[in-house]
Amino acid sequence: MAKISDEIRDWCDYCGGIIDSDDKAELRALVDRIDAEMVELPRDADGAPIRAGDTLDGYGKTIEVVEMRYGRGGWVLISRDGSGYADTFAFAHHHEPTVEDVLREFAYGLGVPVADSYVAAAATKLRLAEGVDE
User: Is 86 left (phi over 0), alpha (psi -120 to 50) or beta?
Assistant: First the structure.
């Protein structure tokens, strides 16, 4: 994925005579400063960016990120109870389980391999039984 700063540099090259050279130099200097000072957000186990307010699963629990601190060692996530977690890759964004997830977990607990098509069909029947139209 291209960085936004590279896109701005390309735009400066593309503009030709529309922007004078002094303005281009100032814009390039600003882009260089952005690259030097910018810090990327921490990422979870799936590579998704983590932000304050996110709910994450890891270490056998679910936490809400209320603050993120960046230091020499990298990012530290602060949870609602005040605990800090430096290993952001130990977490994944929390998602409520779907009917399919519950069926797969149930079958796994019984030691029964289940095809995705069967899980999908059974989930559809369960939703109909509950009167949920998805």
Answer: alpha
Please state, rounded to an integer, the average pLDDT across all residues of the chain: 86
8 Å CB contact between 65 and 53: yes
CA 8, distance to chain mean position in Å, is 25
What are the DSSP calls for 18-47, one per residue? GS-HHHHHHHHHHHHHHHHH--PPPB-TTS
Confidence tier at 85 by pLDDT (50, 70, 90): very high
Q: What is the pLDDT of residue 44?
A: 94
Residue 49 CB neighbours (<10 A): 12
